[in-house]
Amino acid sequence: MPGRQPRVPQIAGDAVRSLLAAVFPSDCRFCQASLFTLSRLPVCQGCLQTIHPIEFARCTRCGDLLPASEAEWGDACCAECAQDLPPFERAVNFGAYSGALRQLVHLLKYERVRVAAKALGHYTALACKDLCDEIEAGELLLIPVPAYKSRLRTRGFNQAELIARAARRELEKILERRIVLDSTILLRTRFAGSQVARTAEERREQVRGAFKVLARPRVKGRRVLLVDDVMTTGATAAECARVLLQAGATQVWVATPARALGRDMASSTSSEKFPERLAPEVVRPPRLDGRPLPSRPAQPSLLPRAGAAPNLFELKAEAPPGPLFRGTYANGES
């Protein structure tokens, strides 16, 4: 009929949309933008590009943020570690436990998307670049923090072990030494429970005795790299390191892809002291079907607001005054 437009472009367009819908996941799990790349990880590149290493001055022992009064001189041992030295040599972490990195950890732990462990393993390996000059042994024993048996039953896997397995080969290239993974050495004997609203001493007591070394001969005289998904209070890592050293390990280091930043930095109000941006805006491509992108709640970020201290962590209770306060974490993880 005269005036009717040919349907070939429309049919071709429908065919392309159907093909893309069959090949690619529908939306990014974080921002709901349509995915255009062939990947098993259902996260868009825009969200992954917001994950950056921590650029603030941090403690060279536990990896937590230094208060403003100490940060002017760069990385150094914090007052808390200087007073009560952790049993591990050093804890290294890639990024802050917020935004897309936090969502990536949750994607693995709670949504059981195991392929997320590959990305988290990559970030863990990158964090270990800081250990290149510290580790002198020709071989490292890689031990994931064990999960309690009830968690293993419900979740089906130990996320720390998946991250360690994903990181092992890249770790060998970065550290230029042999890495031996062993997930049967450490056993979690009981569930420690939430660490929210507990003091540092209470957190240490809460996890004391929660881990046991099953194979002492395989630990004796070895240098150990302990891997977990997130480091928050450091109590879990410290207890694991303590029992490993008691079993005969020579040295223990800790590596995680994410670090919950728990220092109270309210004493610093100048945004000029901090990097201009740690989490760039996510570029969200339009959906293939033309529908508008759904709204989502704002994600935590490390971007300081003008004239205010940066909100670097979530507090469940109001923080008492003092630059060395370690916040209580709303997620309760250790």
At the third CATH level, what is the topology name of the domain at 87-259? Rossmann fold
Average pLDDT number:
77
Fraction of residues in helices? 25-40%
CATH class of the domain at 87-259: Alpha Beta
Tell me about this structure.
- The protein is of the alpha/beta class and 334 residues long.
- 29% of the residues lie in helices and 12% in strands.
- Strand 7, helix 10 (235-246) and strand 8 form a beta-alpha-beta unit.
- Helix 6 (116-127) crosses helix 8 (159-175) and helix 9 (200-207) crosses helix 10 (235-246).
- The longest helix is centred in the middle third of the chain and has 17 residues, at 159-175.
- The chain is globular and about 70 Å long.
Keywords:
Rossmann fold, 334 residues, globular, two-stranded antiparallel ribbon, alpha/beta, six-stranded parallel sheet
Write the layout of secondary structure elements.
Layout (H helix, E strand, L loop, with lengths): L7 H16 L21 H4 L19 H4 L7 H5 L6 E7 L2 H11 L6 H12 L11 E6 L4 H7 L3 H17 L2 E4 L4 E3 L11 H8 L3 E3 L9 E5 L2 E2 L3 H12 L4 E9 L75
Parallel strand pairs: 1-8, 2-3, 2-6, 6-8, 7-8
Antiparallel strand pairs: 4-5
